[in-house]
Amino acid sequence: MIFWLVVPGRDSFVSSASPSYKGHRYPVEVIAHAVWLYFRFPLSFREVEELMLERGGIVSYETIRRWSAKFGRAYADGLRRRRPRPGDKWHPDEVFVKINGERKYLWRAVDQDGNVLDILLQSRQEKAAAGRFFRRLMKKTRTVPRVVVTDNLRSYGAAHREVMPSVEHRSHKGLNNPAENSHQPTRQRERAMKGFRSVGGAQRYLSAFSGISPHFRPHRHLMTASDHRAEMTVRFAIWDQITQAASRPTTA
């Protein structure tokens, strides 16, 4: 049996763009909790299955995989819609990832507050790839930054002059720590998954991961314990709103 801890007031949220659970026999709370476990922590589907079993939920790892594929991106998009307007200072960066033995490049951009703006897997580091990423960022955020801060990769400068010449460009490796630090959770997840199997699968997974994982990673080192608990309570309430889950599961 699964026990639910109901927090007063948190079940009053109603989302206008929530995913459909039609045809699913498991409660929304169970689905949302399994997806949260998978995208929040470096766990395999089998490990999530074991954690769900400890709480009394009998669900196979294959079902958890399907839930993550179906609802992960929807949950991430819902969280993104509720974020404040992106900051005006963008920090793009790229790191290589191995997919089936081939080197690909994961492009990522964050604003000055550390919010992930977008991610894109590409095969190259050239000017065209940087320009494609800049255009995608402006289209997705529907805004143009005040300043772009990058490392010393020359492709950024060439793409900047072509795509957003009126935007200030600062090129210095030491100034781009926010973007470099944002790659760390992805690296941790990549190791836990023993790498990605396809470009399309990696793009789909990382699109959901970059929307869900940062939501539960506030700047804890800048908060007191009580402030952190209060902040996480708010973030869990937003999660419940997005997923339509009235409460968080816990053991009694």
TrEMBL record:
<keyword id="KW-0238">DNA-binding</keyword>
<keyword id="KW-0815">Transposition</keyword>
<keyword id="KW-0233">DNA recombination</keyword>
<dbReference type="InterPro" id="IPR012337">
    <property type="entry name" value="RNaseH-like_sf"/>
</dbReference>
<dbReference type="InterPro" id="IPR052183">
    <property type="entry name" value="IS_Transposase"/>
</dbReference>
<dbReference type="Pfam" id="PF13610">
    <property type="entry name" value="DDE_Tnp_IS240"/>
</dbReference>
<dbReference type="InterPro" id="IPR032874">
    <property type="entry name" value="DDE_dom"/>
</dbReference>
<protein>
    <submittedName>
        <fullName>IS6 family transposase</fullName>
    </submittedName>
</protein>
<feature type="domain" description="DDE">
    <location>
        <begin position="88"/>
        <end position="217"/>
    </location>
</feature>
<dbReference type="InterPro" id="IPR047930">
    <property type="entry name" value="Transpos_IS6"/>
</dbReference>
<feature type="region of interest" description="Disordered">
    <location>
        <begin position="166"/>
        <end position="192"/>
    </location>
</feature>
